Amino acid sequence: ADLGELFGLLFSDVGDADWLAAIDEATLGRVGALWAQAAPESGPLGWRAPLLDALTLLAAQVGAAGGSGALRQRMDE
Fold first, then answer.
1. CB 20 within 8 A of CB 11
2. 68/29 Cα distance (integer angstroms)
3. Are the CB atoms for 47 and 41 separated by under 8 Å?
4. Residue 49: exposed, middle, or buried by beta-carbon count in 10 A (0-12, 13-18, 19+)?
5. pLDDT at residue 25, rounded to an integer
């Protein structure tokens, strides 16, 4: 429910902030253009819709992996 928590898990290394801060404006502009092409600001969420879809799919896949027999056999009660 909190995207900030997800970013904390994804970027947990001390050096992550450095390389994220080092991304140049041209590259950030290209990423923004890709998001704008993927979902123009026509809907209520605009470019956020595919991002939320991807996060939802990722969460479902992680949940499914956690329920798999092979993984559950290696987990403590």
1. yes
2. 40
3. yes
4. middle
5. 93
Distance CA 65, CA 57 (A): 12
Give the span between the Cα atoms of 16 and 20, in whole angstroms. 6
pTM of the predicted structure, to 2 decimals: 0.40
Q: Which residue has the higher pLDDT, 45 or 20?
A: 20
d(CA 76, CA 15): 32
Other C-beta atoms lying within 10 Å of the C-beta of residue 19:
10
Q: Is 24 or 73 the better-scoring residue by pLDDT? A: 24
How do residues 40-69 score in pLDDT, each as one tens digit? 556 777 767 777 888 899 888 887 777 777
* Burial class of residue 57, CB neighbours in 10 A (0-12, 13-18, 19+): exposed
